[in-house]
Amino acid sequence: MSLPPGFLDELRTRLSLSQVVGRKVMWDTRKSNQGKGDMWAPCPFHQEKSASFHVDDRKGFYYCFGCHAKGDAISFVRETENVGFMEAIEILAGEAGMPMPARDPKAQEKADHRTELAKVMEQAAQFFIMQLKTGAGAAARDYLDRRRMADATRDQFGIGFAPDGWQGLWDHLRGKGISEQMILDCGLAKASTKGGKPYDTFRNRIMFPIRDARGRCIAFGGRAMDPNDNAKYLNSPETLLFDKGRNLYNMGPAREASGKGAPLIVAEGYMDVIALSAAGFGASVAPLGTAVTEEQLQLMWRISDEPVIALDGDTAGLRAAYRVIDLALPLLEAGKSLRFALMPQGKDPDDVIRASGAAGVQKVLDAALPMVSLLWQRETDGQNFDSPERRAALDKVLREKIKLIRDPSVRGHYGEAIKELRWQLFRPARKPQKWKGGFRDKREAALPQATTRRSMLVAAGEGADTRLRVAVVLAALICCPDLIEEFEPELERMSCTDPDHAALRDLLLRHAGLEAGALREEILHNLGPEPLETLLSARHVAVTPCIRRPGDAELARLTVAEELAKLSANAGLQAELAEAEEDLEGLADEAVTWRLGQAAKARHLAERSQQADSTEYDVGPNGARIDRDERSALDALLERIEYAKKGR
Asked: Where are the CHC2-type Zn fingers located (predicted)?
């Protein structure tokens, strides 16, 4: 029903949140200040001894610093009384002495019909429980015994049995005075197509009641006892009570257990949820015979910020995980994500419990992967990235996936995570080289590497001049590491034929942000003293002005930009143009066009300068001679870098 304007504001004005909450908690008198409406108590939503639950009576909000529960008086009543929104309003209105507005007659009629349907469903649930205890349910009991389902667990979940007859439940409910239409509206029976009496939906099946968050029976799931049955599991049809895409099995108990600190586990089926709960994992749920829907995902996030998707250790389980990833990417928010716990090959959670107990399940949960790791695994497992085209295809797929994330902060962090994984896969393969203090690349040796080979033609084009310029860039950034992040894209693309140069570049990228002293310690720890001493003592490096004056950041910036511009001119800037277009995704079209145009201009001028025989030279900031056309290319590159920084 709809409420008139101002009704909720008036209700909140009349109520004191501390009085509403005070019925459920014991205030900590040492921390609380009733005069200021500043009240503290142990949280009613999770077990604790300290008073971390705070009520701000003046603002009308509560917050728990332990489990992060938050809300107002309405949400508090909903959570503690396990009622819906309108029922919570009715409870609070009664306390405040406010009459509820008149209901819409049609809405009231529909609500009353739902209530009657729920009563019929409860009678059906009791009928199935009774049938499990009869002689007709002997085979079903034997099956549950083989699955090690204790009697207490059967009672807890209301497990029952639908006898192998056409009208067993129908006749039982009709004998109770339930109308034929009510039974059909509940989805408990189907009309005969041959003009006969309606027949039971469930026959010769173990029955699992499906309950909503308030504990009302809204549907059933039935497991066939006949191995030749076409449908191993059968759910109730959708009714006024039941929408399978908007409910979760065991949702109410799972919400309560999660509020007390248990991790929310999402399994594939009823038996997995029951086995997990019996093993002590009470916050376990399952979708209802379909792939996870957006509505179900939102329900999970209302219960827990980071549900763990526990999937069977087979191909079908992995495919289900990938479907969940595609569904979840657009919905991710800061603090709302998923983790994935993959069971051992060929096993489901029930199998793991029977083989290894609760400790076995906990071990799998502790190893759960963040979603970005599984996304990367899907796109790279079994693939060979031995060509630029294949790498570009991987980049394109991952960019398209990351674009789906609407939250800009989450999208940015996913980009950084993928960038790190990509770096680990594609970094140049190097064998550890022994030095006096140990082995080089101790940390890096364990990282996965792509088995790629450098083209001989590319290697041949990288002569001594290129190595000298690379050395200057590396030395300048080691002396002034604050510039590493500024030149990070160019540094990543910088080709290093010298193994020591490649190792130094990789360490600079991995430890961007460290101060000069700490950076040198990392280099010494990983590579030993020789590569750094060799680099800094080289004559063409030692005479570079920014190396002689290591505190001059602006001089170092100009030096690095100048050398990178020359490297780009020598190697060609086609790759840079593609990377610039990728980096600038999301900026205005005019900005992209301008920046790419500047890059093309820089390339043209640099190439032209190489072709000229008689060249007018300027002296660069590092003392090197550069021609004036190349100076134009350098200026364009610097201008482009500054523009990009402002645009971001």
From this structure: 43-67
